[in-house]
Amino acid sequence: MGGAGWARGEARVADDSDFETLKQLLASEDGWNLEYERDGVKVWAEDAAHGALRTVKVVAEFEDVSPDALYDVLHDPEYRSVWDTHMLAAEDAGHINVNNDVGYYAMSCPAPLKNRDFVLQRSWLDTGNEKMILNHSVYHKDYPPRKGFVRAVSLLTGFVVRSRQGAGSWLGYVSRSDPRGALPAWLVNRVTAQLAPRLVHQLHAAARRYPGWKALTDSPYFKPWRNPEQVPSYRISIEDCIDPDAPPPPSEPKPNTSKVKLEVPQPKEAESHSIEDLGDISSEFSVEVEEEVEHTADPTKKRGKFYKLVKSMKNRRKSVQVAKSADNLLDGKPPEEKEKKKPFKFHRRFSLSRGRED
Known about the structure:
Elements lengths: L15 H12 L4 E7 L2 E6 L9 E7 L4 H9 L1 H7 L3 E11 L2 E8 L7 E12 L3 E8 L11 E3 L1 E11 L5 E10 L6 H31 L70 E7 L12 H26 L14 E7 L4 E2 L1
Parallel strand pairs: 6-8
Antiparallel strand pairs: 1-2, 2-3, 3-10, 4-5, 5-6, 6-7, 7-9, 9-10, 11-12, 12-13
Helix pairs in contact: 2-4
């Protein structure tokens, strides 16, 4: 399962099809294994091939948290430093437009693992009934790999927040990440499936405290993810997010529009063969004796191996000549005069070592 419609590392403005892909992943049932179910939280893992990174899907319902509060917690960078105990640093690189930005995020990992960091493009869409967030890893020229961190890759991370029947909210979460380094895929899959429900419980607790925390800040109404007029006017360029060291995308083969002359193969004329084509059948230990074979041979006379060989060659020569005559008739050529039969000549071989005919 891929990362929405983005190519790996691609930076571009998200469109409706990207958010639709996120919703389809959450709604799909085939190809998922339920691995956790407790306290209204369900965790599924993708049924992927052995040794491959799996996508994790989480669905949870909260009775005491509004969709707006949950959506604000996922967005607010200042509040994240309060509830996210793994965060080491977070920086805003800038906005592509009012619904897409790029940022840097660093997180701690338990020893002996090295800490990880990400450069992420985040995209969001609020339709009223649904609030969605997507992020995936991109390159940015101002955030090269840093010493002491392993640059991890988010292939797809997405959240969907909806109103729940009655009071409360519904949360859908999808994640597929590659932490890089020397971690085997099976370990990454296991840890991801275990950490996903912990993240959901942290979000739940943080969302319950968010309204009170936000009201005590200096800017309780500053929410640029809700109010586009509050988004800074500065825009970053997509060109700043193109990795110069990345391999170029494979080019599609161009169709050959040149005029190619089609050559129709001409039928080959049948070649005549004779017994001489077999080469010399004598050896260095033989004495060559030339002898004529009469066509009116005595049928009662015992026929040896060489007689049978010569006879088969005569039949082969006749068949070739008949085929050649048929080709001449098809080509409209007059039939050639019947050639005068010539006696075959062959070499009789005597073995000096055995003193008898072969």
